[in-house]
Design goal:
Helix content: 55-70%
Number of helices: 10
Strand content: 15-25%
Shape: rod-shaped
Radius of gyration: 57 Å
Length: 466
């Protein structure tokens, strides 16, 4: 049984118990008070009859005692049409008796000065019997009065039926209204349970869809919290999936990149081992092995650097940008000059950023080296630094062959080479820009590229100084 059904049954049962119990108590108390009022009126009438009979009996006793039975008959006949039934007796001698015969015996009359009343059924009617002893003289005269009160009980039975019929109608209305309210309140919870079940099954795109005014109540708050949790989980799962894909791609690329130099090393090693070579041929084969081993060492070093930087923050020390640009240009200049490319600092505004100087120099040297590789002989690479509101921007600009939008979108991917043949011929592994992105990220800086094919490329590193 569902929770809302349990709540419905329990609430309805408590309501019916309270309603019908309350009605029963109110009716019972009201009937008791009404009965007491009815008895008070009938006892007053009995008192008048008994007092009048006592006075007349005392007078007759004084003048003609033998006329007392006729007195009793006279009273019984006089009051019977008025709805008062009498039984007058002196000891065992009954003077008059118009009483309806009760189904159960009546009690003995109480001593003089007291009255006893009780309700008895006579046939199909109920009567109030009042028993009393008349004061002497004469001695031992008892009077029993009977009043028909069937109408009182019939009236109250009708009141009971009306009240409980009304209670039944109210109960039906209450049952319907309570069902509608609890069912309406339970539906959002059922929807939330369904959404939670879908999330548990792996559907992290499931949402409750409760918006606007519904968010003000507790169910709306729970719905918003569940949607927020699902969104965060979905985001984390997507990040994990992307990270797993990147890691798998990195593993695949590493395996692919390692296969070429390892195949070359093995081939030349077998060549040296099996072939009869001259000294010059042996030296040439060994040189190939040394070159490929160098490529493997450089690749391993880059991978280690990237792993060390991933998720870590660089040590923050003040770094003077003009001096940093000068050192980076001097380091990159010899390799660029070998390709006929010039590296120069064109603008260096005085500015200081926080970071690890060696890593920042490696970042600029890598950018300058990549820029030089993109240039033909006679090309130029320019380094510049300028202050901007809230930070500083370092740019590395070249006038090389440039890149299209598709190439720019993949810059920074491990082992990605815009020009695979040229990069491999120049000894690149496709890890330099990935390392640059890692260094920038560890310094809280933003690395962006802008390029036009045939015109050149500009790499900009934006630092925050505030």
């Amino acid at each position: 049984m569902k929770f809302w059904q349990k709540a419905y049954i329990l609430t309805l049962a408590l309501f019916l118990l309270a309603l019908n119990g309350g009605i029963a108590v109110v009716l019972s108390v009201s009937q008791q008070k009404a009965f007491e009022a009815e008895c008070t009126g009938l006892l007053a009438r009995q008192h008048i009859v008994a007092q009048s009979l006592a006075e007349d009996a005392a007078a007759v006793e004084a003048r003609r005692p033998q006329a007392l039975p006729r007195l009793g008959e006279s009273y019984a006949g006089q009051y019977q049409p008025k709805g008062i039934f009498l039984r007058v007796a002196q000891g065992a001698q009954v003077w008059a008796d118009t009483l309806p015969q009760p189904d159960a015996p009546l009690p003995e009359p109480p001593p003089a000065g007291q009255r006893l009343h009780t309700v008895r059924t006579a046939g199909e009617w109920r009567f109030l019997y009042v028993l009393a002893m008349l004061p002497a003289p004469p001695e031992g005269v008892s009077v029993v009065c009977a009043f028909e009160i069937e109408d009182f009980f019939v009236g109250w039975a009708r009141i009971y039926r009306v009240c409980f019929a009304g209670s039944a109608m109210v109960s039906v209305l209450m049952a319907g209204a309570l069902y509608g309210v609890l069912r309406g309140l339970s539906r959002p919870m059922e929807r939330l349970a369904a959404v939670a079940g879908r999330i548990a099954e792996g559907d992290y795109s499931a949402r409750s869809g409760r918006r606007g005014r519904y968010q003000k109540d507790e169910v709306g708050q729970l719905s918003a919290a569940l949607d927020g949790m699902a969104a965060r989980v979905e985001e984390n799962i997507e990040e994990l999936r992307e990270a797993a894909e990147r890691k798998q791609q990195l593993v695949d690329n590493v395996a692919h990149e390692l296969r070429t130099p390892l195949t070359a090393v093995r081939g030349y090693a077998e060549y040296i081992q099996r072939a009869e070579l001259t000294g010059e041929e042996r030296f040439e084969a060994a040189q190939y092995i040394v070159d490929e081993a160098g490529r493997l060492a450089a690749m391993s070093e880059r991978l280690l650097q990237m792993a060390a930087l991933r998720g870590e923050q660089a040590e923050r020390q003040p770094v003077f940008l003009p001096g940093l640009l000068g050192r980076a240009a001097r380091t990159a200049a010899p390799r660029a000059a070998a390709r006929g490319v010039t590296v120069a600092v064109t603008k260096a505004e005085e500015c200081t950023v926080l970071g690890e100087e060696a890593l920042l120099e490696s970042l600029l040297v890598n950018l300058a080296d990549n820029a030089a590789k993109a240039c033909e002989a006679g090309g130029r690479v320019e380094l510049a630094a300028q202050r901007v509101p809230g930070g500083a921007v370092v740019t590395v600009r070249d006038n090389g062959r440039g890149m299209d939008a598709g190439t720019l979108a993949h810059l920074g991917d491990p082992f990605y080479r815009p020009d695979k043949a040229r990069s491999r011929a120049q000894g690149g592994a496709g890890l330099g820009l990935s390392l640059c992105y890692q260094i920038a990220k560890s310094h809280g800086a933003l690395l962006k590229f802008a390029s036009t094919p045939g015109v050149g490329t500009t790499a900009a590193v934006a630092f925050k100084t505030e």
